[in-house]
Write a structure and sequence with these properties.
Elements (H helix, E strand, L loop, with lengths): L1 H8 L9 H11 L4 H17 L26
Amino acid sequence: RYTRRIFSRLGLLAQKEHYSSLQQQFHQNLKTDVKLYQQYHALIVSHAKRHCMKKPDCPGCPLRQICQYKEPVHEA
């Protein structure tokens, strides 16, 4: 669910698109390396828990510039 949330907000996965198509893209574009997949997974989970929650923390997000979801920043 984290991967779907992040990648759909980035515009890399359509809302109705199956997760398997995203998984296939990873497999086609990365060498087969379990440690690499584990690292990607850990980074995705970490990002989702810190920034890309159901109610996202967009102002501090390092992917904000490329995210299609981004919330407006309120200046004080």
